[in-house]
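Weekly modeling sync, notes
Attendees: S.R. (lead), two postdocs, one rotation student

Agenda item 3: backlog of single-chain predictions. S.R. asked that every request posted to the team notebook include the full sequence so nobody has to chase files. The rotation student volunteered to paste the first one in as an example of the format we agreed on. Action items at the bottom.

Example entry:
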Amino acid sequence: MISVIFDRLLFSNMGFVVLLKGEGDKRILPIFIGAVEARAIALINNNVKIPRPLTHDLMKNVLEHLEWRVKRIEVCDLREGTFIARLILEKDGIEVEIDSRPSDAIALALRFSAPMYVDEKVMDDAGRFIADIESVGADNVPGRAEQKEREISPLELLKKDLEKAVNEERYEDAARLRDKIKHLENRHADN
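Predicted structure, as returned to the notebook:
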């Protein structure tokens, strides 16, 4: 296993990409993730406090209440273009492995400050050298077309969620998102 750290979250025309950087390794593992998980990662990475717990915060609270901790996460396999991960939980010296999507595992690892690892074969198959990451595309990531990416802020994520909620006529969700956006914008204005 290769020890990795969260490097950054990017937005591209194909979606969100999380980059895991090998420690002592010059490669980065790009993993495409969903918008909800991207928001969960962006919020914790940018130390944004929200009034009520989101799913990953709730999971952390439940695990802590039950006195379990995330000992580590592992991106352990790549099957037909899909990354497979697992959470390694620990309580009283007992370890339990739980199947997970990498995005959820990363979101929890960041909340627990838990170490992250990538299987060497996965890094060999899908890892890219840092210079190659500037244009993550079909030649660099299995199953993905050429694209441009940029870092995305939690505020931008919320605005995209708001637009989607309005388009889907989920007005209660839209009002909640609007309030979160106003709260973040007011915090930025005060700083």
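Discussion: group reviewed the output briefly. The first strand starts at residue 2 and ends at 12.
Action items: rotation student to repeat for the remaining queue; S.R. to check formatting next week.
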